[in-house]
């Protein structure tokens, strides 16, 4: 089940796809066999890698492609009155059966210029689906890449939680974000619908409004909690109050009783009674060190006496590094009091509040004591670069290669149907991606392969591969899915392997990462440059 | 009909809303009457105004609020095993009937701290809907504001077209963007589904791939076009070729025949045959001035001979100001050749390619000749600030005011149920927004009203209003919509009036706009500060 099904439909496209479709049809070239490549020109976030995501959504879209009667009716309205009626019959007849889709495995690390998908089929049909394909790949890949960068920055042991629903582009923006952040490396989401639809673990505890809703113990309607392993009942509020007095006597935390909020304590008690085994408290509503942590420790120790183990606390403001270290100090101090309090030293500290990649790296440098980050805005909006910029370009038609020229060399397309390989070196890391003409023989390991920069003549290298992987598989042909699709967890695992195992650290690092090479074979180089010259008009001087 | 219906459902929420709901229910405070305010703290994009949008979506969400059996089943799975079974019966029984929603009119210009919506009802139910409401208001308001800023920058005569679908956060991100850019001030969208669902005018012509698909006249399968007002047939390709030769002889455009692409001409002819009355050509595939414009003028003049009138051209790269002026020059030159070519001077020039507010202002300074902007990425992703940051705060519970304190004064909430007014001065412009206690009498025009800054003691002013508007209406009560909802076009019109007619120019300008004042009454000021002191813990020094 997929929460997007109802919206991913043929009309989710730019109007010009429909006008072009009509013009192709009118010209009689709509059925000409065409090949389109989907690729991007620049890695996002000043980085040197991208995670490819959205493939399954593209395939489902093509699988279900069919204009409804009301769609056709609408298209009739927006095209000129004199549009030929046979065109609408043609539209009605369209489906994805004539398309062939080759793609890189979803979750792979990918690089500029290499086609993520190659879509072949009737010219007009290929053209019609451009916008939907770009819509489905662009944000999915962008946010998965962003999530992977958060994972890189925070290390493999950090718990990463996506909290972005309220800042995403509407309901489905939020769902898409949750799904692709998970595959990019996040452990869970706050988005319950994403949990239900995709099986992603859901996480969360309480908001400030919950804490504020308890001004005093009067708002605590029940105070009793059963001991975990007996029928005996304890008064969690009384027990927590006692623990609190004891704590303030015991430790020199620089706090006086009058500073510690009774409303906050009451809210913690109410929450702990509801969730005695998963108690995680938001402790910054009043003052983390002068109120929140005192109440949290008090309730946690009282819970402990009843046989339950608190999970941890969350801070959502202030100096997260300083606070996390102060909290850890207090937890360690508590843990040394009694053997049975040993668990306190590992108490989970969750931090949220405008976390981004840079914050995480700065926190790392300050040797923070945070166990989990909750990330919203910067993750789902991809603040640093909110669009990936994938494009969808015609590279062949009726067996003739097509090239899109531009005065800007980076915008020239690599023409023709291609095959693409990832070349690995002796140490197991990927060295470069190589594009070749479809007609060339496969490159072989342990042979010298000449790899050229597609546009800079002097940049070339001989490569001796220890391993070569063909990048594309056929996923959709003759109206059928012909390659099994991985589960979300398999895609997630593939992202991790693809980046962490196969990509050299210098390509992954935050500051001035080394660009990963994307090359063409000698034959493709010559083919590309010959075609370029053939197509570039010749000016005349005087 | 609304494209979001299927996704805007109770589970589209953060998990902590459900855990808090359980804790409230378990504590027996879930039915306590509560009041929550939705507001933001800072206008986006370094501006001093925001457009409020998303209200109808919120109301529809509340109207349809009901957990499905499978939702309940899922919640059962994610809550601890020992959660009480009665809670799920309670969830099943929940709907929006107990809520009251007051709101500012959708499309109004709004300012920090003033509640956009005030939601009253049972504590747990109010809490449950927080995330969905924020999700529906945040991006809608942000992107509507962005669109309104583009409109401000480009003036009322510019045609503004939203082309953002491929860069939005998935399918519904794109739909949401199209809808709210339209109300914010855009004239049309490329998004066909948005056209179908919301009745927004759809716009678009052709992509580079269409142009590239014609390498030579061989790919032109039909060349004939009927004269508009007779049965006579012309060969549009031959006629265009003749016009082109004639043009190159006639004018010193510094172009030789060999530079002008025949493939491009063929593609224009194919498109013009399909759309003879709405011919708009993308002219930058090869070279705007050395190929595109020559072919475009040639085909347009040939169309003219057949009785049709071309609409214009689009440029998607290069120096848009320079190119637009060069294009206008050529069009004007053509228009002076013959009386019947007069229409050529007004030929539409559409520009796209990474347009943002700053580009538009720079183009204005350079006195560009562009008639329409197509805007994608910067508009829908809100690159400059991709999240609005609306919050949802508890302000009263069981008739007691609630305040959320913070060491950061800008984060302190204004407690209690309030009434809010917009005060207008003699010249018809809005002077300030005023929040009062719900119990205070309405302020009256032509009386002195003392307005105070909510936190800065010395900032206060006496205001003599010429007109006072109450900002909030009750939209939802006792399970019914009680205020009629405006159409999309009415909301769009209201945005325009609300900004252009009522807001002083200095609040709207791009550079260092004057902050609009948001004040509280004397009584609310005292109430707020008393409550603050009551709730702030007292520290002790030595």
UniProtKB/TrEMBL annotation, chains A, B:
It comes from the Eukaryota. Keywords: Ligase, Magnesium, Manganese, Metal-binding, Phosphoprotein, Pyridine nucleotide biosynthesis, Transferase. InterPro entries: Aldolase_TIM, N/Namide_PRibTrfase, NAPRTase_C, NAPRTase_N, Nic_PRibTrfase-Fam, Nic_PRibTrfase_pncB, Nicotinate_pribotase-like_C. The keyword Manganese applies. It catalyses: 5-phospho-alpha-D-ribose 1-diphosphate + nicotinate + ATP + H2O = nicotinate beta-D-ribonucleotide + ADP + phosphate + diphosphate. This is Nicotinate phosphoribosyltransferase. It comes from Caenorhabditis tropicalis. The keyword Ligase applies. Pathway: Cofactor biosynthesis; NAD(+) biosynthesis; nicotinate D-ribonucleotide from nicotinate: step 1/1. GO terms for biological process: NAD+ biosynthetic process via the salvage pathway. GO terms for cellular component: cytosol. Residues 159-396 form the Nicotinate/nicotinamide phosphoribosyltransferase domain. Catalyzes the first step in the biosynthesis of NAD from nicotinic acid, the ATP-dependent synthesis of beta-nicotinate D-ribonucleotide from nicotinate and 5-phospho-D-ribose 1-phosphate. Helps prevent cellular oxidative stress via its role in NAD biosynthesis. Belongs to the NAPRTase family. Its cofactor is Mg(2+); Mn(2+). Pfam families: NAPRTase, NAPRTase_C, NAPRTase_N.
């Amino acid at each position: 089940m997929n929460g997007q099904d109802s919206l991913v439909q043929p009309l989710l496209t730019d109007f010009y796809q429909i006008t072009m479709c009509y013009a192709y049809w009118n010209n009689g070239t709509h059925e000409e066999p065409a090949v389109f490549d989907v690729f991007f020109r620049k890695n996002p976030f000043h980085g040197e890698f991208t995670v490819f995501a959205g493939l399954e959504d593209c395939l489902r879209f093509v699988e279900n492609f069919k204009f409804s009667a009301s769609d056709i009716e609408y298209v009739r309205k927006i095209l000129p009155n004199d549009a030929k009626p046979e065109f609408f019959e043609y539209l009605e007849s369209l489906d994805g059966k004539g398309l062939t889709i080759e793609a890189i495995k979803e979750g792979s690390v990918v690089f500029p210029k290499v086609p993520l998908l190659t879509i072949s089929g009737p010219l007009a049909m290929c053209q019609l689906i451009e916008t939907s394909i770009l819509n489905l790949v662009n944000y999915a890949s962008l946010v998965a890449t962003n999530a992977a960068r958060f994972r890189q920055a925070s290390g493999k042991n950090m718990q990463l939680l996506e909290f972005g629903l309220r800042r995403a582009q509407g309901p489905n923006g939020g769902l898409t974000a949750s799904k692709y952040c998970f595959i990019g490396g996040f452990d869970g989401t706050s988005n319950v619908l994403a949990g239900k639809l995709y099986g992603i673990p859901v996480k969360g505890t309480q908001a400030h409004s919950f804490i504020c809703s308890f001004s005093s113990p009067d708002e605590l309607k029940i105070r009793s909690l059963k001991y975990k392993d007996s029928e005996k009942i304890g008064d969690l509020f009384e027990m927590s109050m006692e623990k609190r007095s004891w704590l303030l006597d015991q430790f020199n935390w620089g706090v006086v009783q009058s500073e510690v909020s009774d409303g906050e304590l009451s809210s913690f008690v109410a929450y702990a009674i509801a969730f005695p085994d998963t108690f995680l408290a938001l402790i910054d509503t009043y003052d983390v060190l002068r109120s929140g942590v005192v109440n949290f420790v008090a309730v946690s120790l009282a819970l402990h006496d009843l046989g339950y183990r608190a999970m941890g606390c969350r801070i959502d403001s202030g100096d997260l590094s300083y606070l996390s270290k102060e909290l850890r100090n207090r937890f360690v101090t508590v843990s040394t009091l009694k053997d049975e309090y040993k668990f306190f030293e590992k108490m989970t500290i969750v931090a949220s509040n405008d976390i981004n990649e840079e914050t995480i790296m700065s926190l790392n440098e300050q040797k923070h004591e945070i166990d989990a980050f909750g990330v919203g805005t910067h993750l789902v909006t991809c603040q640093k670069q909110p669009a990936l910029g994938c494009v969808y370009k015609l590279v062949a038609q009726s067996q003739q290669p097509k090239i899109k020229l531009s005065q800007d060399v980076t915008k020239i397309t690599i023409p023709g149907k291609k095959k693409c390989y990832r070349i690995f070196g002796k140490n197991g890391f990927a060295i470069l991606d190589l594009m070749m003409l479809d007609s060339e023989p496969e490159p072989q390991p342990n042979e010298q392969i000449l790899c050229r920069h597609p546009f800079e003549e002097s940049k070339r290298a001989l490569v001796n591969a220890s391993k070569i992987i063909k990048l594309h598989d056929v996923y959709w042909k003759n109206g059928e899915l012909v390659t099994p699709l991985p589960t979300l967890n398999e895609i997630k695992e593939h992202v991790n392997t693809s980046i962490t195992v196969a990509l050299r650290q210098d390509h992954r690092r935050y500051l001035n990462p080394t660009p990963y090479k994307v090359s063409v074979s000698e034959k493709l180089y010559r083919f590309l440059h010959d075609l370029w010259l053939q197509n570039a008009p010749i000016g005349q001087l005087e």
